[in-house]
Write a structure and sequence with these properties.
Elements lengths: L28 H8 L5 H12 L6 H4 L8 E5 L13 H4 E9 L5 E3 H14 L3 E4 L5 E6 L4 H10 L12 E6 L14 H11 L12 E6 L11 E8 L3 E8 L11 E7 L4 H15 L10 H8 L1 H13 L4 E2 L14 E4 L5 E5 L5 E3 H13 L4 E4 L5 E6 L4 H10 L8 H4 L1 E3 L14 H14 L13 E4 L13 E9 L5 E9 L11 E9 L3 H15 L9
Parallel strand pairs: 6-7, 7-8, 17-18, 18-19
Antiparallel strand pairs: 1-2, 2-5, 3-15, 4-5, 4-14, 8-9, 9-10, 10-11, 12-13, 13-16, 15-16, 19-20, 20-21
This protein binds iron/sulfur cluster (SF4).
Cofactor: siroheme; [4Fe-4S] cluster
Catalytic activity: hydrogen sulfide + 6 oxidized [2Fe-2S]-[ferredoxin] + 3 H2O = sulfite + 6 reduced [2Fe-2S]-[ferredoxin] + 7 H(+)
InterPro entries: NIR_SIR_4Fe-4S, NiRdtase/SiRdtase_haem-b_fer, Nit/Sulf_reduc_fer-like_dom_sf, NO2/SO3_Rdtase_4Fe4S_dom, NO2/SO3_Rdtase_4Fe4S_sf, NO2/SO3_Rdtase_FeS/sirohaem_BS
């Protein structure tokens, strides 16, 4: 591995700010900030200064930069509309409270951990908790004074917020049913745990060009096509179960589907190969322009063949084994409903609306699971929740109890396949509201489209983003909605959405078409979705999916 402070390649030419080519001088304010002080160093200042002296004592460079290395963003000040009525400076948007992201690698929680996560929300976050599409939990209304206590309580049960945000290796996605699914190729959990143990909080990887998103799963259930690096379960004809490696996927602006390296990696080598790939990103990633800094741009320029060659020759010192591609699921795998485990027991996947739960709900889930003898719960990349290890005799009572908590094991297709990002309620980048709008939309569609539901083999997915970023993966939804200000029929500037149609993962992997002019106001949204789903339902052939 190449140490970050001693690049071996010093050839200098105008480039993209790649360390490996000798560009060590910071080329923009973000790079300067990271060079001035490692983001991981901010924890000591929070614990010894800011938590005691309060919000006003926080250095702005820490507040808007390094706090992210521990999952902290200032949340949006209530009542600020995103610049429609005034020109805003960044500090105009800052509330004195924080969003705090708890990383939950692989989405794996014991019921004890879940209870602590829920209780902390009740005590310190005004009972807020959102399940994100990266299997994290996000709190809101966090005071800086309470952050050390939150860390202490989380770390006492093996959880953390370290590198939950920032230019770092973020949470590693994993199959929610790792180790128990009857159709799993291989359990990736040991590799996820090893990466977390060896590399999270390691200063070798705490100054990356941008964020780095990873996924490791024995099933195609972690949106592997749109992660920076993914290891997807596959059986090699000679070597048996292992992982197929994908690099360079990502959404936001310039979305790209990841490329296969054509390499098969056994479970125990995944952490080293992961370290090699993230090292390439650190050393060769583009640091000059932040909007071109994700690894997808490097992979796109190099191609998979050169990327693999550099990985093998400069970082691993050996050749990887060629391997086959994994099976592609015809329909999205979301683990909702009641399913049999390998051991004969069951897992129960339930759907809140667009990931919104509360601390009280999470405590309720922990209690409900423990009452029927389960000690394990998982979060999913679809903003859902799964209780594992349920005896057959307890399934019905658990389903009923979770239903009372607002978590449906047999949800309508609209609740099942709707996702939403944080939106303008708390996110400073947002242009429009999303979570409440998703809840309204789901309720409306359940009522309006009850007659159509049974004609759809798979749910039509609807994803809502509050801005051009893609925290709810709009480009790979059947109906993707990108928040923006639009003009209504009376010429007013109102909240609305640019529509992307026909995106998908798996067999339908590709990005939805963004049709210029296809915009809807927020008020028109239920009418629009109803219209488009009715038309699809009326015209589709048997087995035809929306994205086809
Ligand atoms: Fe915020 Fe935009 Fe991400 Fe939504 S998509 S959470 S509005 S940055």
């Amino acid at each position: 591995m190449v140490p970050p402070t001693a690049p071996t390649r010093t050839k200098r030419r105008r480039g993209e700010g790649q360390w490996a080519l000798g560009h060590r001088e910071p080329l923009n304010p973000n790079e300067r900030s990271k060079k001035d002080d490692d983001g991981l160093n901010v924890r000591a200042r929070i614990e010894t200064i800011y938590a005691h002296a309060g919000f006003d004592s926080i250095d702005p460079a820490d507040l808007r930069g390094r706090f992210r290395w521990f999952g902290l963003y200032t949340q949006r000040r209530p009542g600020i509309d995103g610049g429609r009525t005034a020109v805003l400076e960044p500090e105009d948007l800052d509330d004195r409270y924080f969003m705090l992201r708890v990383r939950i690698d692989g989405g794996q929680l014991t019921t004890e951990q879940l209870r602590v996560v829920g209780e902390l929300s009740q005590n310190y976050a005004r009972d807020t908790a959102d399940i994100t599409d990266r299997q994290n939990i996000q709190y809101h209304w966090i005071r800086i004074e309470d952050v050390p206590t939150l860390w202490e309580r989380l770390e006492a049960v093996g959880l953390s917020t370290t590198e939950a945000c920032g230019d770092t290796p973020r949470v590693v996605l994993g199959s929610p049913v790792a180790g128990i699914a009857a159709d799993e190729v291989i359990d990736g959990t040991p590799a996820i745990n090893e990466i977390k143990r060896r590399f999270i909080g390691d200063k070798a990887f705490s100054n990356l060009p941008r964020k780095f998103k990873s996924a490791i799963s024995g099933l195609p259930d972690v949106a592997h096509e749109v992660n920076d690096v993914s290891f997807v379960g596959v059986v090699h004809p000679e070597h048996g179960p292992g992982f197929d490696v994908w690099v360079g996927g990502g959404l936001s602006t310039n979305p790209m589907i990841a490329k296969r390296l054509g390499a098969w990696v056994p479970l125990d080598e995944v952490p080293d190969v992961w370290a090699g790939i993230i090292s390439i990103f650190r050393d060769y990633g583009y640091r000059r322009l932040r909007h071109r800094a994700r690894i997808k741009f490097l992979v796109n320029d190099w191609g998979a063949e050169r990327f693999r060659e550099v990985l093998e020759t400069e970082y691993l010192g050996r050749r990887l084994i060629d391997g086959p591609a994994p099976d592609v699921p015809a329909v999205p795998v979301d683990h909702i409903g009641v399913h049999k485990q390998q051991d004969g027991r069951y897992y129960v996947g339930v759907a809140p609306v667009a990931g919104r739960v509360s601390g009280s709900t999470l405590v309720g889930v922990a209690k409900a699971a423990e009452r029927i003898g389960s000690r394990r719960v998982r979060l999913t990349p679809q903003q859902k929740l799964v209780v594992l290890d349920v005896e057959e005799s307890e399934v019905d009572s658990l389903v009923a109890e979770l239903d009372k908590l607002g978590l449906a094991a047999h949800p309508s297709p609209w609740r099942r396949a709707t996702m939403a990002c944080t939106g303008i309620e708390f996110c400073k980048l947002a242009i429009v509201e999303t979570k409440a709008r998703a809840a309204t939309l789901v309720a409306e569609l359940e009522e309006r489209l009850a007659d159509v539901q049974s004609t759809l083999d798979t749910p039509v997915s609807v994803h809502l983003n509050g801005c051009p970023n893609s925290c709810a993966r709009i480009q790979v939804a059947d109906i993707g909605l990108k928040g923006q200000i639009v003009t209504d029929t009376e010429g007013r500037q109102v909240e609305g959405f640019q529509v992307h149609l026909g995106g998908g993962l798996g067999l339908d992997a590709g990005f939805g078409r963004k049709l210029r002019g296809l915009k809807v106001t927020a008020d028109e949204l239920p009418d629009y979705v109803e219209r488009i789903v009715r038309r699809f339902s009326a015209q589709r052939n048997d087995g035809e999916r929306f994205a086809q």
